[in-house]
Amino acid sequence: MEVKIKRGATITLKGSADKVISDAPTEETYALKPSDFPNLVPKLLIKEGAEVKAGTPVYFDKNDERIRFSSPVSGEIVEIRRGAKRKIEEIVILADKEIKYEDFGTHDVAKLDRERICSIMLESGVWPFIRQRPFDVIANPSDKPKSIFISAFNSAPLAEDYDFIMHRSDEIFQAGIDVLCKLTSGKVHLNINGAIKADDAFLNARNVQINKIYGPHPSGNVGVQIHHIDPINKGEVVWVVNPQDVIVIGKLFTEGKFDASRSIALCGSRVKTPKYFKTRMGAGVKNLLSGQLNEG
Could you give the CA distance from residue 60 to residue 40 in angstroms, rounded to a whole number? Predict the structure, then answer.
């Protein structure tokens, strides 16, 4: 399917990231921030001083106790920072030098039913990566979405280039898609930028409907894409997943671990050498920014 967006504007800013990727400087501490998720009411599962592995559940949502949030690294819970009325603001983890992982076992997705897949995703803490539209909240595992959307490009200025980030991730990306296909009786929509040649990880994807989107920003906005491809009617929900989160889901089922790796773009007019970095979710940016910014 082809969609042409006529209204909008392509905004060009200085400092776009070069197609070069490096390992980010090592961070000693990582943090989980419940405030990243609107309407979440966190309840801690562990206390300060507890040892965790990558994938160990740290807290859950009081509104739905099935939804857990896991540590991105192994190490020790060194601080639970609270704000007004003892609201949990951050859970700080002192990371091990070598990451240890919880073992969730490998699985043949073709042999699993929807209930079992949901159970594995909830247990490991990867479920919060699935967002629901409308409202952009964590998806309810009990819902059955009419479709699932993956936007393989971002049209915002200085946004990350998923074609670069996802290069050579064909197999693991497909594994994630196979999981998502089990969660809906509708279609999984993979939306690519029609103006350029997408990476093979996207072009070779199976069991999805590949849609080519043309036009200026906000053509890469998944909400705009849903409106044009599969509009939401009263009582319906659509789920949305980021391409890098599809990788996380794929690794959970093929490697049996919660891998919180992330590729990010450090860019902008003040950055000396804009480029990509490999890091992990929850990492601080102090060491990453050190020596990278021009004065002014």
Answer: 9
* Whole-number Å distance between alpha carbons of 55 and 68: 10
Distance of CA 189 to the CA centre of its chain: 17
Calpha distance 58→129 (Å, rounded): 16
Cα distance between residue 262 and residue 278, in whole Å: 6
Count of helix runs (H) and strand runs (E) in the chain: 7, 17
Nearest of 220, 225, 212, 219 to residue 148 by alpha carbon: 225
- N- to C-terminal Cα distance for the chain? 46
Residue 168 per-residue DSSP state: T
0.90 cut: is pTM over it?
yes
The predicted-structure confidence for 179-199, as pLDDT tens digits, reads as follows 999 999 999 999 999 999 999
Q: What fold characterizes domain 2-28+102-284? A: Rossmann fold (3.40.50)
**Whether the Cβ atoms of residue 157 and residue 217 lie closer than 8 Å to each other:** yes
| Residue recorded with tokens 């009325």 | 85
